[in-house]
Amino acid sequence: MYEKDNLSQLLFIDIETVAQCEDYLQLDHSSQLFWQKKAANFKNESGLNVREIYEQRAGIYAEFGKIVSIGLGYFKFDGEENLTFRVKAITNDDELLILREFTDLLRRKFDQEKLIFCAHNGKEFDFPYLCRRMTVNRITIPEALSLRGKKPWEVKHLDTMDMWKFGDRKQYTSLDLLANILGVESSKDDITGSDVNTVYYRDKNLNRIAAYCKKDVVVTAQVYLALQHMPLLSNDDIVMV
Question: Do 50 and 130 reside in the same domain of the chain?
Answer without folding.
Answer: no
